[in-house]
Amino acid sequence: MLGNATPRRMAPKGLSKMTEVHSASSFEAIVIGAGVIGSGVAFELSRRGLRTLSIDKLGGAGHGSTSSSSAVVRFNYSTKAGVALAWEGMHYWRNWADYLGNGTNDAGTLGPLAEYFRAGILLLKSEGTNEDAFLPLYEELGVPCEDLDHDETIARWPWMDLSRFGPPTRLEDERFWADPTEQLAGSFYCPDGGYISDPMLAAQNLCDAAKRAGAQFWFNTEVTAINSSQNRVTGVTLSDGRVVSAPVVVNVAGPYSFHVNQMAGVVEGMGVVPKPMRREVHVAPAPSNVDYDKDGVLFADLDAGTYTRPERGNLVLIGGVEPECDPLEWVEFPDDASTQVTDAEFELMVLRAARRITGMGVPPQKSGVVGVYDASPDWTPIYDRSDLDGFYMAIGSSGNQFKNAASAGHCMAELITAVEAGHDHDSDPLVVFGRFTGNPINLGTFSRKRVISDSSPATVLG
Ligand SMILES: Cc1cc2nc3c(=O)[nH]c(=O)nc-3n(C[C@H](O)[C@H](O)[C@H](O)COP(=O)(O)OP(=O)(O)OC[C@H]3O[C@@H](n4cnc5c(N)ncnc54)[C@H](O)[C@@H]3O)c2cc1C
Predict the structure, then answer these.
(1) Which of 121, 182, 221, 441 is most buried per CB count within 10 Å?
(2) What does pTM read for this prediction?
């Protein structure tokens, strides 16, 4: 059952004068970017009755960084709002057809849908797992989690080697090859964790749902300027010179967000500034004696420096968790990032995973994808307004916000509604209530003006 399922017309001050105008060059909201989050924002705005235009320079929804996402759904974040948003986000995936169909339950008419695999997720107990932060939040927000000791973990996943390998090192460090002498204490297991089968399809599902709710999508169309007058956004200019007007513009440009914020002149007013970061994700065969599709599990492994999940076809998908020994690959512009998986990173990541997954080896052929994160210094997104009235941002997704695409879309639409109606979000941060869980999500946590401290998250786990 979806709360707030009935679309409601938004009649905030800044928008009311636009509602009578219906030309191809004026809208009530423009969303820059049609990735999974941008399409989620477009759906939530249009289902509230806003005449919404999404613009993307690529050829279709989800063709940007969304296409390389590992699409892992987990709940261990270090803030209450982070856990609440992720737990809420999972409910959208579990109720995907119902949500996209706006409560009609008519999945038959929606076309192929991204599937949620509830494979369960483990966080191995090791240095930095931060359970003192997230376990009380799980309890408060209703996230089921089992505390498993070493033997219970091995009994459930007998292919797992729980030796202590960490702290993570690189292959050229002799400590990498040293025989382990200790065992990890066990794991925290969330049975509701999992992954999305096809991240690009998920974005397309949201795009289609937004179109059904009245949104337009212009693909192969690039925004080159953000227009404003008297500190109020008035619309955008496209690369072919066309001007499109709207009193609300939302930056959901993924790793291009910094450049779009520069166009709007809003970077100065931000305490946290996300930048593009290149990342490789690798895929290798699971051991042949394990049916990993059935008996595999997702796990985050700060001790070895990886996260892994089953990939269809008895494969293991392997990503990194930014241990100190791994250099971060910042790039000036996302298009500068090499799109080739490198031999060195492939070998390192597969060997890290192979120490944990007994019987796994490094295949002769490397396989994987290269993606670009829009990485914040504290690995936390920004879901906020900007210092320019009417200009909003859903950015800094930092390699961990795919799971929140729909819940963040809801939060952004609530934020835009409230701020356009006069709410002072900067001095009184908006609290949004989850459609499914009813949990409060304090959007102040995702403020552009937050201050980074020593206790801010230091890895992609956020
Ligand atoms: C390798 C990798 C692994 C990840 N793994 C996970 C995971 O396991 N779990 C998880 O929750 N999250 C994960 N993430 C993060 C998640 O995938 C992203 O947060 C999410 O896909 C971002 O969606 P988006 O809509 O914000 O951006 P994008 O998908 O990048 O879309 C932005 C769009 O904006 C468009 N654009 C940019 N500038 C302009 C312009 N000037 N004019 C017009 N269009 C423009 C681009 O063409 C692009 O299509 C991962 C990310 C990567 C890269």
Answers:
(1) 441
(2) 0.94
Check pocket membership of 362 for ligand 1, CB cut-off 6 A.
no
346: domain CATH number is 3.30.9.10
Which of 334, 353, 372 is a domain's end point? 372
- CB 195 near ligand 1, within 6 Å: no
pLDDT tens-digit profile, the chain (462 residues): 333 333 333 444 444 444 444 467 999 999 999 999 999 999 999 999 999 999 999 999 999 999 999 999 999 999 999 999 999 999 999 999 999 997 665 656 788 999 999 999 999 999 989 999 999 999 999 999 999 999 999 999 999 999 999 999 999 999 999 999 999 999 999 999 999 989 999 999 999 999 999 999 999 999 999 999 999 999 999 999 999 999 999 999 999 999 999 999 999 999 999 999 999 999 999 999 999 999 999 999 999 999 999 999 999 999 999 999 999 999 999 999 999 999 999 999 999 999 999 999 999 999 999 999 999 999 999 999 999 999 999 999 999 999 999 999 999 999 999 999 999 999 999 999 999 999 999 999 999 999 988 777 766 677
- Of residues 383, 388, 389, the one with CA closest to residue 410: 383
Structure tokens belonging to residue 75: 């709940």
Which residue, judged by its Cα, is nearest atom 48 of ligand 1?
A: 64
Distance 368 CA to ligand 1 centre (A): 17
Domain count, the chain: 2
Task: Please identify, by atom number, the ligand 1 atom nearest to the C-alpha of residue 65.
Answer: 30
329 lines ligand 1 (CB under 6 A): no
Q: Among 327, 343, 372, identify where a domain stops.
A: 372
- Tell whether 451 is covered by a domain: no
| Atom of ligand 1 at shortest range from CA of 373 | 53
Fill in the DSSP letter of residue 337: S
Whether residues 280 and 187 share a domain: the answer is: yes
Domain region containing 366 = 117-192+275-372
Q: Is 284 helix (H, G, I), strand (E, B) or coil?
A: strand
Percent composition of the chain: helix, strand, coil (DSSP 3-state, to 5): 30, 25, 45
Calculate how far, in angstroms, residue 334's C-alpha sits from the geometric centre of ligand 1.
Answer: 11
- Torsion angles phi and psi, residue 61, rounded to 5: -70, 135
Confirm or reject: Cβ of 68 under 6 Å from ligand 1: yes
Q: Report whether 352 contacts 321 (CB < 8 A).
A: no
Q: What is the DSSP letter of 335?
A: G
Q: How far is the CA of 133 from the centre of ligand 1 (A)?
A: 27
| Residue to mutate (ligand 1; options 236, 256, 383; most atoms within 8 A of CB) | 256
| Backbone angle region of 52, left / alpha / beta, with phi > 0 → left and psi within -120 to 50 → alpha | beta
Q: How far is the CA of 254 from the centre of ligand 1 (A)?
A: 4
Query: Both 72 and 203 in a single domain?
Result: yes
